[in-house]
Every structure is written in C-alpha cells, then in structure tokens.
Amino acid sequence: MCKTIVLSINTSWNILNFRRNLIERLQREGFDVVAVAPRDAHSAALMAMGVRFFPIEIDSKGLSPLRDLRLTAQYYHILRRLRPVAYLGWTIKPNVYGSLAAHALGIPVINNISGLGTAFIKVGLLTRLVRRLYRAALSRSATVFFQNRHDRDLFVAQSLVPSARTALLPGSGIDLAHFTPDPAAETSVPTFLMVARLLRDKGVVEFADAARIVRDARPDARFELLGFLDVQNRTAIDREMVEGWVREGVLHYLGDTSDVRPHLARAMAVVLPSYREGMPRSLLEAAAMGRPLIATDVPGCTEIARGGDNALLCRVRDAASLAEAMLAMLAMTPTERAMMGARSRQIAEREFDVTLVEAGYLEAIARATAP
C-alpha cells in the first residue's frame, strides 16, 4: 500500500517548477504524492505527473486573521482526510498554517525556509508577527531545512526553531543533465539577463537603473528581463513600470517561459541584484549552464555566486555598483568569461546536484516517520 505524503507551497507553478525532481523521486520510492496549493494554470500538469491535487485558497500577501484562520481549517480538513505519513511545507503560509494543522493531527512536519522575504528585509510590525507565527509553527517540526547558513543562524538566534531540528540543503538542487552548458548558443551581442519574479526586493529597479548607466558607455550592450508580471506581493513591480523601461529602450522584457535554458544559453552573464535570497534558482540554473554570474554580496546569492571565482559581486541596493560590475564583465576577454563560466559549472556539479537534495528529504522523512 502506498504511503501518502503531502507537499504544500503557495502556487502550483512553484511545485511544478522547483519540486518536480523531488516528486518523481518520492514516487519512485513508493509514495502517493499529494499537492496542496492554489489552483492555477500549472495544476493540471501536476496531476498529469500522477500527483493527487487538492486546491486550497491562499492569500499570499493578505494579513487578515479571519482568512488565515479559514486557511488553517482548510489544511486541517484536508490532512485529517488524507492522514499522510508526513507534511512537507514551503513558503510562509504553508509553513505556518499547514504545519499548525499537521501538528494538531499528530502528523510529522518537515519545513523548508527557502528565503526570508519582504517580512524580514523590512523590519517592523509585520516582521514581529511573522516571527511569532514561525516560532509557533516550527517548534514541533521534525526537521526545518534552510538554504543557507545565514538564515538558519538568524532563526536559531531568535529562538524561532531549536538548532537540533535544523539542517541545510542546497535549495531545490539542480538537474545537471537538464541544465547543461551550450557555449555555441551565446549571442554575439553582449547580453545581461535577469531572471526573477518581478519584485523590488529582487533588485529589478536597480537592474534597470544600472542598464542606463552601462548603455552610456556601451550602447551595444543588451539587457533582458525574464519573469512573471502581476505577482501577488507587496513589493511587486507593476506592468506600467516595465512597459516604461521597454519604451525607453533600457530593457527588453521577455515575459515568462516554461523553459529558461535557451535564454540562459544566449546570455553573456546572468544577473541577480537581490536584497536577500534563500538559494536563488536563477543563479543555480545559470551556473549549471556554465554562465558567469553577477550578484549582490548578500546571504543566499553568495552561496552560488563566488566573488572573483565564478562571479562579480556588487553592493545591495546600489545601481552604480551593479553597473560597475557589468562594465567589468564587458571588459573581460571571451576566454576570461569562459573560464568563469566553467567554474560555475564545476561548483554546480560539486555542491548543488539535485540528488543531494532528494537524499536529504528521504533521510528526513525516514527519521520523522520511524517508529
């Protein structure tokens, strides 16, 4: 008889794009995988993988106690019906309210803190509220995975989770057979690519401002932005702003895509001027494809973007510093950039193989469900 296991994230898109390998591994190990997430355009693809799907309503940016109470009740009813051997949660509300429901039912919980987000970047009343919720939700979890040591140390120091219950994982890992270098695909036009959800905290505004500076010195340079518009987040970049950059000729907006590889392969370098990350997926994918990186010198980014090795680093919230890094990349010879890209691939192979992540989850599940 298959053992049921529940995965919950704030979008079906997130589960499909970042947890596909884990789902397939769990299925090979004999688990009946259930996804609990809001229904979106990617929910059908999850079900096509043999995943049972239970829709749930999550107001990701909402602060209504009544809605969050209803969300907890939704989780409770679904989990009571399924009685899974374990509940795995990612993103704030599934980590908090799904975990509270699972704890109430005696279901082992494994959490993944994939980044601290706006609530921790902008310290205030919301930060204090989120900390209190995390403390209540994580205190009884079997394992709480973090994607970098900075986030783990912060949670332990603030007594949000006991140190003994924490562990590190290299993000969602990277499928090295799927993301492979393709040097012949690089365009002759020097192209900087940023792949991210279009949020201010990702440094999108700094990317546009830096592009203006660089274009004054190197009008041949091209700046591409790839990612979802209309994201439900308090720091979301609106469509009007992006269209303004496009009209100005500062950026080329590529929309979103189900396959980022052709865009990564064309780029001279991949850029992420984020304010803070857990483990940035875009940089992992770019590194696996042998691309040089430009990133902010902040927790998360520096886990994969190593300054002076496979990356150039810039100061956070500083468009001039980012522009300086881009100009330095342009000043390199093709051979120097190729060597930097080769080191990116080596780091991905050595430290971020998706099989390492799969093994970490299987070990945590085994510990949590042991008699």
Structure write-up:
The structure is a single chain. The chain has helices at 12-18, 20-28, 43-48, 65-82, 92-104, 117-121, 125-138, 149-157, 204-217, 239-248, 261-266, 281-288, 301-304, 319-331, 334-351, 354-369, and strands at 3-8, 31-37, 52-55, 86-90, 109-113, 143-146, 166-168, 191-195, 222-226, 252-253, 269-272, 293-296, 311-314. It is of the alpha/beta class. The strands form two sheets. A seven-stranded parallel beta sheet has the order 3-2-1-4-5-6-7, with helices on both faces. Helix 5 packs parallel to helix 7. It starts with a strand and ends with a helix.
Element layout with pairings:
Blueprint: E1 3-8, H1 12-18, H2 20-28, E2 31-37, H3 43-48, E3 52-55, H4 65-82, E4 86-90, H5 92-104, E5 109-113, H6 117-121, H7 125-138, E6 143-146, H8 149-157, E7 166-168, E8 191-195, H9 204-217, E9 222-226, H10 239-248, E10 252-253, H11 261-266, E11 269-272, H12 281-288, E12 293-296, H13 301-304, E13 311-314, H14 319-331, H15 334-351, H16 354-369
Parallel strand pairs: 1-2, 1-4, 2-3, 4-5, 5-6, 6-7, 8-9, 8-11, 9-10, 11-12, 12-13
Instruction: Report the structural category.
Output: alpha/beta
How would you name the oligomeric state of the polypeptide chains in this document?
Answer: single chain
Gyration radius, rounded: 21 Å
Q: What is the CA–CA distance across the termini?
A: 18 Å
Q: Could you give a short account of the major beta sheet? A: 7 strands, parallel
**SSE order, one letter for each helix or strand:** EHHEHEHEHEHHEHEEHEHEHEHEHEHHH
In terms of DSSP E residues, the strand content is 15-25%
Low-confidence stretches: none
Query: Helix proportion of residues, in percent?
Result: 40-55%
Major beta sheet, strand line-up: 3-2-1-4-5-6-7
Count of DSSP helices?
A: 16
Q: What is the number of strand segments?
A: 13
Mean pLDDT: 93
Morphology call: globular
